Amino acid sequence: MTSQLRPSLPILLGAAVMLSLAMGLRQSLGLFMAPATQDLGIAVAEFTLAIAVQNLGWGLLQPFAGAAASRWGFRPVLVAGVLSYLAGLAVMAMAQGAFALMIGAGVLMGVALACTGSGMALAVAARPVPSALRSSALGIVSAAGSFGALIAAPIGQVLVEGWGWRVGVWGFVLLGLAMVPAAWIAGRVDRVPIPPLAPGESPRMGLALGRAMTHAPFLVMAGAYFVCGLQLVFLTTHLPSYLILCGQDPMLSAKALGTIGGFNVLGSLFFGWAGGRWNKGVLLGGIYLVRSVVLGLYFAWAPSEASTLVFAAIMGFLWLGVAPLVAGMVVQMFGLRFQAMIQGLAFMSHQFGSFLGALGGGVLFDLNGDYVLAWKLGMAMGLVAGAVQVAYALRGSEPPAAERPPPRPAVA
Fold first, then answer.
1. Which of 43, 138, 168, 316 could form a disulfide with 160 if both were Cys (CB 3.0 to 4.6 A apart)?
2. In a domain, 157, yes or no
3. Structural domain boundaries enclosing 385
């Protein structure tokens, strides 16, 4: 497999480094919530509103970023996203109130993630590799993209404890500079020719969009993806605050986020490999079901360091494993030509869920003084979404024309 991937390795490496830092820095922003809200004199809900705006902007803009990459190429979109990312972190570091925090951590980082996050990175990774190795390559990039949290979370916590949250954010700016060359190298994918249209594959953007919005398996997948976003962003935003509320060492939050990042690697590799062998829809629904059960079991009892790290390990294994499965399903359904845009539509649903997970968790905490109702709702929604995804995948359906092999010529 290595020899077959070797020509595309620089592109895959660039996409992985970009994704690693983009996701790792973003997933670690919850470390700054407690000190930033105290320093700025704002409510928890105001901080989480900025994260919610970030996720909503990311989701709303993802299809447009994908469409822009289809029209003008990936490189300009990726590089513009990195610059917006760095600007957002800088504005956050200099914020004096909730409005500046929303512009930096919310609007600018939302724009940036639409251009540099998993949707774009996996669209880049899907093009230069042979179709037989695509699922594994997507898993590899997702896995490599998980290392960011291993680096960012501990560094951020050390900087916060030693010099304050603003220095921690400036440290993230310095780490983020490595995304500039990574995005430039990943942009070499623009030189890779797109395969010829498969039989029935839409030749125009509007037709591809219309097919996606009327294709039932895609709509089910996108609906379940909503709950995926809700659960994950609830955890990255509120787990640090929850652990402090329960009297745990603040460093445990960084350990947990780092553990999630480490086990992301194993989960991404496994589900990338598994997606090439078994029904991707069933695997996806299974992730949602197991993740929801584990979430409920963890929050039902008071946390300890051991239970938190075990929880983080299991959740990490099930975290980014969804990414190669979703990306692979989109390619199977609709082909490569407009993958970034169509995958962006699914991710828009994911980010609506992320918006609700970040903001809803903060609102319920401010109303009730705890996270009990928030985690119960997140668990219940995950169980329903997982069950529907598995049931629909097992039911089976006729694939769209882009998925079906061309008919064999008649034998005289």
1. 168
2. yes
3. 9-188+203-395
